[in-house]
Amino acid sequence: MTTATQTAAGSANSGSLLLTLMKLRTFIALFAVIIFFSIFAPNFLSTANMILMSKHATQNAFLAIGMTFVIITGGIDLSVGSIVGLCGMIAGGLIIYGIDLPIGYTVYFNILEVAVIVAVVGVLIGAVNGLLITRLNVAPFIATLGTLYVARGAALLYSDGQTLPNLVGREDLGNQGFSYFGSGTIIGLPVSVWMLVIVALGAAYFARFVPLGRHIFAVGGNERAARMSGIRVSRVKMFVYMFSGFCAALVGLIVSSELMASHPATGTNLELNAIAAAVLGGTSMSGGRGTIGGTIVGAFVIGILSDGLVMMGVSSFWQMVIKGLVIIIAVVVDQAQRKMQARVTLMQMAKQG
Questions:
Q1: Are the CB atoms for 326 and 305 separated by under 8 Å?
Q2: Which of these, 59, 205, 234, 241, could form a disulfide with 126 (CB 3.0-4.6 Å)?
């Protein structure tokens, strides 16, 4: 073996080690924040605090799962936070006011029916995003930014900016039990966590084994090639935005259920947490790459980071700064990983040669 080949082999090995560390960055970050806050935040590892953090991380995770599929296609969804607020208001309104029919009769729904209606609303808003992007060729950033304002404005108009409190329902109307989604437990774990497990496993299976799931990665990797290979790109994009809207609707339902109140400002800036969690979890902003598992870990990193900073008494202004830095660092590392991957591949080819 020549000296040049030996040097290439050594560089390839060191590059492979660095590339592996980059791929594991989300898990490293998770362990780092847990250790840090265990030392500096009082009662961080208490059972009550762990359950509370899991609830908050779950909210980020739902949004991040939907955002992951969107980003993999090369898009972005800025409207999810507003969808959370609007769907929460709709859930509260259905419980308190029901729906007035033109015949002078008011229909009230049980809790499961409320959940289905809210989910449908989220899917429909996602469909609007998808239509704007696929049919009218509006850039995803602009389309979802517009939907962000429309959904937030609709939430404010729904109650004239007021909170809908005391969502306990009435026994004679059969709409009690709304608190179960946000405060109920199964085998000691919050219901929202079990809901996340179901959605996450379903999304991971879909992405890996269902043709439409694989098409999502193909569209993000090379949209033109995907179109030429017969993939219905518009259908794929429609699906990811509808699924993102569905995930946001679930969060709106859970938050309102946990608080037993609906407020139109709920979900403000949650889209930033979703993007940060997805990118931190290894989803490439240029599209074509991402995993549901990595996104879940990224969501827990963001959730633990937020709660830990609050426990340490860090100003909310500094929290925004830190989250912004996390997004920037995650994107920088992602770009470095792509370059490193290409370099390692070349070095391995040189080693084989």
A1: yes
A2: 241
Longest C-alpha distance within the chain, in Å? 90
Tokens 């969107």 sit on residue: 70
DSSP state for residue 172 in the 8-state scheme: G
184 exposed, middle or buried (CB, 10 Å; 0-12, 13-18, 19+)? middle
The candidate with the shortest Cα–Cα distance to 287, out of 206, 346, 209, 224, is 224
User: What stretch of H or E contains 147?
Assistant: helix 140-159
Per-residue pLDDT of 185-195, as tens digits, reads: 998 889 999 99
Question: Within 178-232, where are the H helices?
Answer: 180-183, 191-209, 211-221, 223-228
Contact of 335 with 279, CB cutoff 8 Å: no
Contact 239, 49 (CB under 8 A): no
Q: Are 233 and 219 in contact (CB under 8 A)?
A: yes
Q: Tally Cβ neighbours within 10 Å of residue 142.
A: 12
330 neighbors 312 (Cβ within 8 angstroms): no
Name the pTM for this structure. 0.90
Which long-range contacts does 187-196 make (Cβ < 8 Å, 24+ apart)?
189/51, 189/54, 190/51, 190/54, 190/55, 190/58, 192/55, 192/58, 192/59, 192/254, 192/258, 193/54, 193/55, 193/58, 195/58, 195/250, 195/254, 196/58, 196/61, 196/62, 196/296
Per-position b or e across 285-299, b if 16+ CB within 10 A of its CB:
bebbbbbbebbbbbb
Gyration radius of the chain over CA positions: 22
Lowest mean pLDDT among 13-17, 48-52, 160-164: 13-17
CA-nearest of 19, 26, 34 to 279 is 26
